[in-house]
Amino acid sequence: MAIVYLLIAIVIVGMNIEKLPDVFSLIIKSAFGTEQIGAGAMGYTIAQAMMNGIKRGLFSNEAGMGSAPNTAATASPYPPHPASQGYVQMMGVFIDTLVICTCTAAIVLLSNQYVAGSGLTGIKLTQAALTEHIGNAGTYFIAFAVFFFAFTSIVANYAYAENNLVFLEHNHPARLAIFRLCVLGMVMFGAVADLPLVWTLADVSMAFMIITNLAAILLLSNSAIKLAKDYNKQRKDGKLPTFNANEYPELKAKIEPGIWDNH
Prior knowledge:
The protein is an all-alpha fold. The chain contains ten helices and no strands.
């Protein structure tokens, strides 16, 4: 779905290539507040742009929230080294935010649908913009794409949460049933509630996740740096990076037996 979305965005940019300078100009002016300098509001504008950019960026890529490691931890990485998992996750952040979100910005800003204060926002704005570019098919494509993006996100995050509950030994059938009902309730609420309220609740939820996960990241940072150096050194030496837990006794004691055994 992401590849199809990217291809459509490339086609739209090609169809409107002469408008790109104006689009970049609008993005820069909006991001850095050059239009507000005379009004003395530049500092506030930049602060707002950074705050909203960070919030929406975190929503798109979940960087630092600790969700993606649930998937990475179940993978059998190649090269067989923990650092390779980290580099793959870093690439996911790049694709989600700099590629997919830039596609959406291009689709919207190359249309005539974006009017400040018009009230047309969110998916409705994207649908209107894509419809302007490719006709009525745009409305259905966005609905189709968002359905699958949302469905896979809901299923994945549900799986992460339930596996964590099981790991923490909260796997009593009654508790899991209550958790599943809460998930269904939040899905329904998110579908019908006002968009600003949904964004606010999402921001608060992500903040709690980030605060918790960043504490773990700080505690693990020395190990991460050590493993990254080991991975890069093996690559530089022309070797296939392979993690040997015996070389890191301080880490081996914390690793579950059998996961990184060097055969």
